[in-house]
Specification:
The complex is a heterodimer of chains A (261) and B (462). Chain A is an all-alpha fold and 261 residues long. Helices cover 70% and strands 0% of the residues of chain A. Chain A starts with a helix and ends in a 13-residue tail after the last helix. Chain B folds into three domains: 1-196, no CATH class; 198-238 and 269-313, no CATH class; 321-462. Helix content of chain B is 45%, strand content 3%. In chain B, a hairpin with a 5-residue loop joins strand 4 (249-251) and strand 5. Classes of the chains: A mainly alpha (261), B mainly alpha (462). The interface between A and B is large, with 63 and 65 residues.
Chain lengths: 261, 462
């Protein structure tokens, strides 16, 4: 059995063989253009969480569910950056399956047990999101980190949802996926599309068409009608294209897990 | 779900439960499909997360190695792609029911099963055109030794295994017409699945070695003519010299004519009879005693059960599921690429990439990400394992894209990378993460226990 660290190095060496790098493109300014979207997404999640807290205090189960779904939408659009830039908060806000706070803990009570007494959970969610929202104006954004997040999310969208997906209790996993794809689409167009078009127009077309395929794949009336095979192909082909794009953009190969480089 | 209707009926059929799955019973049952956003009925149990999997024994491995055809059949057998929309969406393949070529005693699908281990192949879910509007599930049979067990179907209506497999794919599961090559490959794979060896069985199916008094008395009773119909005996249908079957159909008081099932390895094939109505040999023997008025004493029944248990035994029926087993199977699947890539066989490459990618993504989920509350520690190790598996998935996808575009040399280069990764680096990274993976029984139970608890709250409130 070979050493784990050696094994990791072998993986990277094999995969980097034959890859070429190009001059780094001026992506830092482009990454800054993503900041308002990031702030808006988490802002929407925070607004939804505050509404959820209010509805929970009023013992309004239907209203609390609606607010949870609204908060969730803003969060899922933001997953391009959450795992990579704020991993601790990401783990608190989106832990599963039986978290003691966060989205899925609240989901289990609202949609699972049919209970509206989620005030303390909602308090914690608001606090975490508020904390995150406060960091976003000054957080250092790197093109590499945002490309890593885009690639990771593109891969994740292609995972099997045969078991009902991440938000199976509320039945909103397809909403999660649609918002993930919207986040991927926006991040790519805002940060990377122009630079890639200048470096390799054909590859830029390929990435754009793969994103369109991903959008088409999740445009279904419900999760059972999403063609999982087509979705997975679109997801993986997009990741392959973005891996190729990283070299053309002068960036290291994107990571597939939120690990330190 | 190939020879779903094969085997069953006459005397016993198979047992299984008690003895060997004891280890599995200690574990929490696997998490069922649930929620209202799945292709399968809520509360479906596929038992895909069981930590103990039936052991596979292949005739060709004893002879030296599997052929391309058998590996292709194994691949197709494990692929949802060859079945219809519902099965594909649910990620179900032939191997979902026939786990490693054996049965699946815990499989349960509401409205399609009446008990764990059976399934209505003529229900409306997978192919509405095949719906006979009767809930008539049949036991999910083991395929071990199927090449010696013609005819096929619980009622033995099909002499050809190839025709039977075709019927399962196209009619029962509404799959697209399979190519002749794929059909031949699946048949070759099934015919390669052997019985588990049973050292207690000697030539002619006689008990040998260290046998108990009870087993010997049971063997004599088994061959003894029935008191009210001397032309009949247990051994008359379950012919010991013929894999304990006679390839005929009989009415044994279970509601019609059904094929005599083999008793070999039957300890691991419960539930018994064509519809899986009996859980144990005790129940089966009691049924025959009643139907044929055998006049068995309590001791006679115990002796027959002892004999059946000895006949139905097999060496190492289960093995612990781990990364090693998964990678071995994946590499066997992937071996078809060595032939299909140079040949530019787009269909086989696509089938392999689709099926192996699905398996690898499932394997990735055995290493929980850091948001999972069921496990703490090993975060780096889990991350490395997940990264490595994802890189393999993407390497395979590049192969598929290259072959589709006619770039055979690129595909061959990526296949070499795939083989290098899978030879040492990936196994090492998975082994390094195993203590924090779902292959660790403690983590497994914590994870699925948490999921089950969360989902149960949903049912409690409804």
């Amino acid at each position: 059995m070979i050493d784990v660290r050696v094994a990791g190095c072998i993986v990277l060496l094999l995969l980097w063989t034959g890859m070429r790098t190009a001059d780094a493109a001026p992506l830092d300014e482009a990454a800054e253009r993503y900041r308002p979207y990031m702030i808006e997404g988490i802002g929407d999640a925070l607004t939804g969480a505050r509404a959820l807290r209010e509805r929970a205090a009023a013992k309004d189960l239907a209203g609390a569910k609606k607010a949870w779904i609204s908060a969730r939408a803003g969060w899922e659009r933001s997953e391009v950056f959450t795992a990579g830039f704020v991993p601790e908060l990401d783990s608190r806000i989106d832990a599963w399956p039986n978290a003691d706070s966060g989205f899925h803990a609240i989901e289990a009570k609202l949609f699972g047990a049919g209970r509206a007494d989620v005030e303390s959970d909602a308090d914690a969610l608001v606090e975490h999101l508020n904390n995150l929202h406060g960091k976003l104006h000054d957080m250092a954004l790197t093109p590499q980190g945002l490309l890593d997040g885009t690639v990771r999310l593109a891969y994740e969208v292609g995972e099997s949802k045969a078991d009902g997906g991440e938000s199976r209790i509320s039945g909103t996993s397809l909403d999660d996926m649609c918002n993930n794809v919207a986040g991927i689409d926006f991040a790519y167009r805002t940060i990377f599309a122009d630079a890639l078009k200048a470096a390799d127009a054909k590859l830029a077309d390929t990435v754009a068409s793969r994103i369109e395929q991903l959008k088409a794949s999740v445009a279904a009336p419900d999760l059972p009608h999403v063609d999982i095979r087509t979705l997975r192909r679109a997801s993986e082909e997009l990741v392959v294209a973005l891996q190729a794009a990283s070299a053309r953009l002068g960036l290291p190969r994107p990571t597939l897990e939120a690990l330190s480089r | 779900m190939m020879v779903r209707r094969a085997c069953i009926a006459a005397l016993v059929a198979a047992l299984g439960f008690g003895l060997l799955i004891a280890g599995a019973h200690d574990r929490l049952a696997a998490f069922p499909i649930d929620g209202d956003q799945t292709a399968l009925p809520p509360k479906t149990e596929l038992n895909e997360d069981a930590l103990d999997k039936p052991r596979e024994v292949f005739r060709s491995e004893i002879a030296g190695g599997k052929s391309y055809l058998i590996n292709l059949g194994n691949l197709a057998f494990g692929s949802p792609s060859i079945l219809g929309d519902v099965a594909r969406q649910a990620g179900m393949s032939c191997g979902t029911c026939h786990v490693n070529g054996a049965g699946n005693a815990k499989f349960f699908m509401p409205k399609m099963s009446t008990r764990p281990g059976n399934f209505d192949t003529t229900g409306s879910l997978f192919n509405p055109k095949a719906n006979n509007f009767v809930l008539d599930p049949v036991r999910i049979p083991s395929l071990r030794g199927a090449r010696t067990l013609a005819p096929y179907g619980v009622d033995g209506r099909m002499p050809s295994l190839r025709d039977f497999v075709h019927n399962v794919i196209v009619n029962e599961f509404s799959g697209p017409e399979p190519s002749p090559a794929i059909l031949d490959a699946i048949v070759a794979y099934i015919q390669d699945i052997d019985f588990l060896p049973n050292p207690s069985l000697g030539p002619g199916g006689h008990l040998v070695g260290k046998t108990s008094e009870s087993e010997r008395r049971g063997e004599a009773l088994f061959a003894k003519p029935f008191p009210h119909d001397p032309g009949l005996s247990c051994a008359g249908c379950h012919v010991p010299s013929g894999a304990f079957a006679d390839h005929q159909q009989h009415d044994v008081g279970s509601g019609g004519l059904f094929k005599t099932p083999t008793l070999r390895n039957a300890d691991f094939n419960a539930p018994y009879f064509h519809d899986g109505r009996f859980d144990s040999y005790d129940q089966v023997v009691a049924h025959f005693d009643r139907i044929f008025d055998l006049g068995l004493s309590a001791q006679d029944r115990r002796d027959l059960v002892a004999y059946l248990t000895a006949v139905g035994d097999g060496t190492l029926p289960y093995e612990h599921d781990g990364a090693g087993g998964s990678l071995k199977e994946i590499n066997e699947f992937a071996s078809v690429l060595a032939t299909a890539i140079p040949a530019g066989d787009k269909d086989v490459v696509a089938l392999a990439v689709d099926t192996i990618g699905h398996e690898l993504r499932e394997l990735t989920e055995r290493y929980p990400d850091r948001k999972n509350t069921s496990v703490s520690g090993g975060e780096q190790e889990r991350g490395h394992a997940r990264t490595a598996l994802k890189e393999v998935v993407l390497t395979l996808r590049r192969i598929d894209m290259a072959v589709t575009e006619g770039r055979i040399s690129d595909a061959s280069a990526d296949y070499r990378i795939y083989r290098s990764l899978m030879a040492a680096a990936v196994p090492a990274l998975l082994a390094g993460a195993e203590p924090w993976s779902l292959f660790n029984p403690a983590v497994h139970d914590q994870h699925y226990g948490a999921l089950r608890q969360v989902m149960q709250s949903r049912h409690t409130s409804q």
